[in-house]
Each structure stands twice: as C-alpha cells, then as structure tokens.
Amino acid sequence: MINFNVPPLVGSEIKYIKDAIEKHKLCGDGTFTSKCNHLLEELTGTKKALLTTSCTHALEMAGILCDLEEGDEVIMPSYTFVSTANAFALRGAKIVFVDIRPDTMNIDEKLIEEAITERTKAIVPVHYAGVSCEMDKIMELAKKYNLYIVEDAAQGIGSSYRDKPLGAIGDIGALSFHETKNLSCGEGGAFLTNRQEFITRAEIIREKGTNRSQFFRGEVDKYTWCDIGSSYLPSELNAAYLLAQLEEINSINKNRIETWNYYNGAFEELVQHKIIETPVIPSHCIHNGHMFWLKVKHLDERAKLLRFLKENGVYAVFHYIPLHSSIAGEKLGRFHGNDLYTTKESERLLRLPMYYGLAPSDRVKVVDSVYKFYKKQGDL
Q1: Which of 79, 120, 281, 289 could cross-link to 260 by cystine, CB 3.0-4.6 Å?
Q2: Prediction pTM value
Q3: Is residue 184 part of a domain?
Q4: Whole-angstrom Cα distance, residue 322 to residue 333?
Q5: Same domain flag for 226 and 341
Q6: The domain containing residue 151 runs over which residues?
Q7: Residue 49 bridge partners (DSSP)
Q8: Contact 94, 74 (CB under 8 A)
C-alpha cells in the first residue's frame, strides 16, 4: 500500500534528541527551542517566532491577543480545520463564514467586505495547500476597517505571496508541524508576529500567563502571574526533532515539489478531456508542494475513485467537511452570503499521496491507478 502520508525523516533527528537528553533539559525553551525560533525568524522574516505545542495553540494565542469579547465577529472560510474556528470561538467570538474561490479553495477575497460589521474584529485567511490567499486585498480591508489579520498558515511553511513568506504578512501567523505537514515533530506549531507590542504579551500567554521568559533573560528579578495564558511550550525533544528538518527545509520542499510537478504533468490528458481538475497556482504565489488534489465530477464519483485506489494499493483521502454545516458550526457561527462553492467543491476534492521521499515508482503507480479507473469508467 502506498501511504497517503509518511512523516519526514532527514537523518539527524535521533542525534539531536540524544543531545537534548544528555543536556538534562527536556522542558520547553531550551537550546533546541531557541535554535528553532531563530531559524523560523530567518525563514519568515518575522520579528518574533515562538515554537508552540501545535498550530491550534498558536491560533489560541492569537485569539487572546486580539482581545476578543463576547459577541465580536471573526471572518474566515468554512473550508478549513476546526482549530481555525475553535481558537476564536473559545474567546466568545461569533464565527462568520465566507464562501471560497473554486480555483485555489481559499477564501474569496471579493466577498469579505460584505461580511464586515461593526462587531468584526479579525479576518483569518487560511492558505489552503500552501497556496496563498490574495493578501493585498485582505490587508487593504484590514487597514480600511481597523481589523486584525491572523494568517492560518498551517500548511504554508516555505510558501510565499509576492515574495512575502506566508504567516509573516498579517499581524499574526500560525504554522503547523503536525506529522502530516512538510516539516514535522509529530505535534507542534509556531506563533509568528511582526507587531512589537504583541511580542512580550505573546511570551507571557505562552508561559501560562507568567513573565517567566523575561525572568530567565534577567529583565525582571522574579516571575509572577501577569495575564491569562496556558502551557503552549513544546518539549526540547520535539524541538530537537524539528530542528533537524528546519535545517533541511529546502531539500524537503524541493522533493515534494518534484512529486507535485510529476502529478501535474501526468494528469494533463485528464484535465484536457475535462475529466478532472487539478490545482491552480496564481503566478504571484510560490507554493511548497504541501498537497496535490484532484477534483472529480461529484461526490459519488469521488467515493468510487477512493475505493478503487485503495483496492489497487493507493491510499488517497478526501479533506474537510465544511464547518458551517457541522453541529458546532451551526451553533457558534453563521455563513454570510451564498454557499456557491464551499460545499460543492469540497465534495469533489480528494488528495493523493504526497510526502518527502515518495518513490518515483510509487508516483507512477498512483497516476496509473487514476487512469485505470477512468478507463474502466469509459471516460478514456
């Protein structure tokens, strides 16, 4: 069976973990965490990067920093993971879902302004598959209405929009290092910000609401409870594993792009015959090969194709169920405008195996299996 995902392994992870153990410093904010933070700052160009236990927790920190109150509204796509909404619903915000663009599956930037009210506090663009939302328009709206921009760049490490790294364009960015992402430490994430006034408070929130980080830097003579917060620090073991991959991000992403390009070229015949659709990458966006998706004609065809692939040793999967149609989404949010594409496009999309080190022979098998399905269907 060709797995959908295999967590990356570059070779120096075990050595770094052994070093962390021998240093007798396993809790957060040790040497390896510091090195990861610095590499992330260099990679993204942000003033501050803070490793977190997950992208979910980075988004929760953002929710606190936006000073949300009960009844405030936060705009985002419905086609996203639950963490995007949960982080702000936990602060009492109403989630306002906006339809997506069918080409990139990102929030439709042209529909955001209509959804803004006097209670709107933030916009949360989600860079689906590591392909950027149209950030110029979104930043323009933020300036016009004095809104926070929190980028959910969970899938976007190494991607950019007009040469600006994803996660570093808005007020706050959140990255994921879950095992399904380009870089992984099993469970992990990062909080990014360019706003100087957020940095000190973000450190406090991340350290259970204490000024412990400032204490260890000698900036205060004792540390105490200063603010709300939680335990958002990953262990040094996670950081050690991640550091090995951060050091190799260029080779990891290059390898994934090679697989992505192979798929894209190999499926050209099916696209030309309008049998499937493949991803659209705007010319001003650079992506990281995080995902390769296909869109088929409808939900039934997707189920049949997924079943056929599994029977032929290829594990492919679908993706998000739109949040606005979920039990919690109906309770905690509302969909603004018409759902023209969110549900329809989500039901057509499936994701093919994509990971660092996917063998060329396995890429061929994946493509051949898709073609066999459509030949069996009589489409070719």
Answers
A1: 289
A2: 0.97
A3: yes
A4: 12
A5: no
A6: 13-246
A7: 192
A8: yes
